[in-house]
Design a protein that fits this description.
Blueprint lengths: L2 H27 L6 H23 L2
Helix pairs in contact: 1-2
Keywords: Membrane, Transmembrane, Transmembrane helix
């Protein structure tokens, strides 16, 4: 994997983790939305799928 691809994956991971944190915090502050844990876990699963897709494409 090239250095550029590695940097892109790491930046994507950092931004995704921040997004998961924002989702969890928003739901925690506004309980009418949904339960915080399932929403944050859904965001984490989407992040994992995105990172795995990017790394698979970058490895080619």
């Amino acid at each position: 994997m090239s250095m550029l691809a590695l940097v892109v994956v790491l930046l994507l991971l950092l931004v995704g983790l921040m997004a998961v944190g924002v989702l969890g915090h928003a739901v925690y502050r506004h309980p009418a939305l949904k339960a915080p844990l399932p929403l944050a876990l859904t965001g984490a699963m989407l992040l994992t799928a995105t990172v795995s897709t990017v790394t698979t494409v970058a490895a080619r």
